[in-house]
Design brief:
Length: 339
Amino acid sequence: MKYPRLLQKGDAVGVCAPSSGVPGEALSARLDNAVLNLKALGYGVIETASVRCDDKCVSANNEIRAAEFMSLYENPNVVAILPPWGGEFLMDMLPHLDFEKLSLLPAKWVCGYSDTTTLTFALTLNSGIATIHGSNMMNMGYVRIHETDMRALDVMSNYSTVQKSWDTWGGFASWDDISAEVYNLEKPSSWKSLQGDARVSFGGMMIGGCMDTLCKLLGTRFAPVEAFLNKYRQHGFIWTLESCEMAAPDIYRTLWQMRECGWFNHCNGIIIGRPDGYKDKHNFTLIDALKQGLGGLNVPVIYDADIGHIPPQMQIVNGAIGKVDFADGRAMISQERIK
């Protein structure tokens, strides 16, 4: 596993839009604010040409999006790449990436959630590069960068990290007002164990992302999960998964398909983030989906975790060796590179 060099003050952060772009004056202003916030922390920012464009849910055609990503990856001044956010069709860009070439280049941090995990997941599996399932650039475009998003920069600056679950959770305080706080975290947080355990600990290599988009990679050449699991099987694996716009049956069907394809082989534990845009189907609930999808694996399953679309979120390094300690509704996740 290749780990990017540590991010330092003075390094450049690259911004490209491998999925949706940032159109319109209001959204562009938020991106401007994110750039200013990063610069105030001492980082440079390099933005590609198509970031502020969007047509039919993408910033540019497949070839241009791939070329702009590669231009940042090949730029020796760029240490980290932060897409503005996710979108719908990042998978169309994957055939235009040279994963073998990427594996030979100096590794760079790529960080994001939602559709961005289509890219981070593929990079880790195909090129052996550690990536981050974490904050998007646009989350940093308010009056200040919130502590949950600052963790992304902290992880990039330190291979060995410890993150504790938050006491509260919530949502965006104001989607449009960039002069306001980004999140309103006022709901009491309590992570839960599917098995009802009060305490549980497990470890392994971290891997995961957004189920809405990862499930589209099942059976494709961009998700050589079996080879990846076999290569690092001595560590075992911790899957970190979250969803957006999936109802309970969608979540169950996806977990069923992942399980049947062997994605949970050598699994030591699973963490499920709070589902966004979620709803039950009649009396079929999230708990039903998790029990039917994962209950037979005989591994710890923790859910309602600080991962994914609903803030706050932990920054999960795909390819790091993690250890999870869960007790009484709280959790601590430590991560370090393979030594």
